[in-house]
Amino acid sequence: MIEVSHYSKRYGAHEAVQDLSFTVQPGAVFGLLGSNGAGKTTTIRALVGLTRPTSGTVRVAGFDVWKEPVKAKAAFGYIPDRPYLYGKLTARELLRFVGQLYKVEGADAEIDRWLTLFRLEDFGNELIETFSHGMRQKVAIISAMLPDPGVLIIDEPMVGLDPHAARQVRELFRAHADRGRTVLLTTHSLPLAEAVCDRLVVLDRGRVLGEGTMDDLRTRTGTAAGGVHGDSLERIFFRLMEEEQEEERQRREVVAAG
Ligand SMILES: Nc1ncnc2c1ncn2[C@@H]1O[C@H](COP(=O)(O)OP(=O)(O)OP(=O)(O)O)[C@@H](O)[C@H]1O
């Protein structure tokens, strides 16, 4: 379970995220959407304990991530948007290290299974520094999945993946949640969000534009269901952005008039 309560993050005078609250229940895939600079990565960094909230609290598996980082970190797997992997290790060495760290039973067999699933079985003994961007992304995904975490947090999962791997990963996240785990992801891929997310938050410049299920957001924006896969969410997304721009315009008019 993930609980974000009145989370705000300020960098100097800049409010990167303002008063964000949401809960992700076990069994759900939750999507954080938004344009560039909306505050998605900032929120993820708070969720995984890399930055301290300016105000509010962030809890993962019941633990305050800032106050009880070790307990919280034992409960989640994290796939960053730009994963750092030890280039001088082979893929298998890195994954064994992760397996030992998280005390994964039967780790060697599991590692083989994952490498085969991602078509990396011939590269397990190669140094990671020789891997392409997509191959590194796959290793990062395997290292997060290997301990079978109760909570999975992913920043931009599809970057660099070929269509086959992207589809696999999408199905993997859905299956993980369907086994009672909690999954949170950020993405620019509206088709991905529409295909796997049970609930969504749409952010813009640090503020929440909309939150809920696809149906909630459709109702809120007066957007009909249907259309090409992913098209429906695209219409919702642009409608929310238009509403925000209109509100911003009205705010400016009030300030100019006053
Ligand atoms: N370390 C930092 N210092 C100062 N400002 C920062 C820092 N990190 C992020 N920001 C600012 O916070 C805002 C939100 O950034 P963030 O990286 O969370 O956006 P994002 O939604 O992940 O964007 P993108 O889709 O482009 O990755 C941006 O205006 C960014 O410039």
UniProtKB/TrEMBL annotation:
PANTHER family: ABC TRANSPORTER ATP-BINDING PROTEIN ALBC-RELATED. One of its GO terms (molecular function) is ATP binding. Keywords: ATP-binding, Nucleotide-binding, Transport. It holds the Pfam family ABC_tran. Transmembrane segments: none annotated. Signal peptide: none annotated. SUPFAM superfamilies: P-loop containing nucleoside triphosphate hydrolases. PROSITE patterns: ABC_TRANSPORTER_1 (PS00211), ABC_TRANSPORTER_2 (PS50893). The keyword Secreted does not apply. It comes from Deinococcus marmoris. This is ABC transporter, ATP-binding protein. CDD domains: ABC_DR_subfamily_A.
